[in-house]
Amino acid sequence: MKFLVVDDDFDSRRLVQKILHPYGYVDIATDGEEGVQAFASALKDGEPYDVVTLDILMPNADGQQALREIREIEKEEGVAPEKAVKVIMISGLDDSQEVHDAFFLGDAVSFIVKPIRRQLLLDEIEKLGVHLEKTEK
Predict the structure, then answer these.
(1) Closest listed residue to residue 35, CA positions, set 83, 105, 106, 95
(2) Tell me, what's the pLDDT at 103?
(3) Which of 1, 18, 40, 122 is the most exposed place for a label (fewest CB within 10 A)?
(4) Residue 41 lies in a domain
(5) Which residues are modified to 4-aspartylphosphate (predicted)?
């Protein structure tokens, strides 16, 4: 299992990384631009991410912009919709416009409001059809 955590807040990145680490490999990115670059590189290398968590409010490229770019890269690379990466948007704001934009403009598949809780994140990933199994490390 391969995860990408994109968040400009150190504590949030660390928390999500700590939650996901027992289930697979976790890469981190500190802003939307870096996240899109990591996503594109992984896809090009034939090792795509299974799940991406994207903070909405970030410098350089926010989560909404990064999500649109990720979906565009998938289209350009011919990734079938059913094989598209599962994206969970994370925000400190419970903003209905942000939720709307994430789902309808960016094809996000889930939305979580901070503070991030371990079981909620794991449950959301399982709801997306991604089976989590602890790995031996």
Answers:
(1) 106
(2) 56
(3) 18
(4) yes
(5) 55
